[in-house]
Amino acid sequence: MPSALLTPAAFLLLTDTPALLAALLLAALLHELAHYTVLRLFGIRTARFTVTGLGATLCVPELHRLSYGAELLSAAAGPLVNLLLWVVLSLTGRDELSLFAGAQMVLGVLNLLPVRPMDGGRILWLLAAYLTEPYTADRVAAAVGLAVSSALFLLCLWLVLTTGNGVFLLLGALWLVYRSLPAELFFGKCQDEFAVLTKNIKPQ
């Protein structure tokens, strides 16, 4: 599974306080634990689960064994748990929990963007693959991801040019644009098609 991507999240809540780092790390940990729980419910083992200063990462070599529906639930579990915790923490009305609530919200929303490697990008691919087939889904996900990340980049660029702020947001958006570029730009069309055929075919 993709990392919870704390670094882009930090771009949205830019500060150097230890409290924010703790809030983001906790949000990332809970995010990946939600993925892990759903995977275990479907009998899928994880090879590695790491937590560092940049976030939490779940390595799942057996992900291809899941059906489209099962992996969809697994991909959605992380951001949905973050958003649920954001609502719960916000409803408490306690100021000391506002930072943790904000971190949950940012991580949840960020990971629902339909851009690879975010969970939202994987969710879009899974839905498209279920309705069509993997090759078409790969093209749809790439096109949507590039459009969304490019729009986000232009918005951040406008913010920087008009206010002088948001440089880190701009760098984060640029990173998303890079990750959304078609794989054939770097590896060639034949290799990309082979990867789609060999890695993305799933049981129904």
Secondary-structure map:
Elements: H1 6-12, H2 18-41, E1 48-52, E2 55-59, H3 68-91, H4 98-111, H5 119-131, H6 134-163, H7 167-180, H8 184-187, H9 189-199
Percent of residues in helices: 55-70%
Please list the strands of the largest sheet in the order they lie side by side. Answer: 1-2
Mean pLDDT reading: 78
* Structural class label: mainly alpha
If you had to describe this structure to a student in words, what would you say it looks like?
This protein is globular. Helix 2 runs antiparallel to helix 3 (68-91) and helix 2 crosses helix 4 (98-111). The chain has helices spanning 6-12, 18-41, 68-91, 98-111, 119-131, 134-163, 167-180, 184-187, 189-199; strands at residues 48-52, 55-59. It is mainly alpha-helical and 204 residues long. The chain has a two-stranded antiparallel sheet. It is 69% helix and 5% strand. Strand 1 and strand 2 (55-59) form a beta hairpin. It is built from nine helices and two strands, in the order ααββααααααα. 38% of the residues are buried.
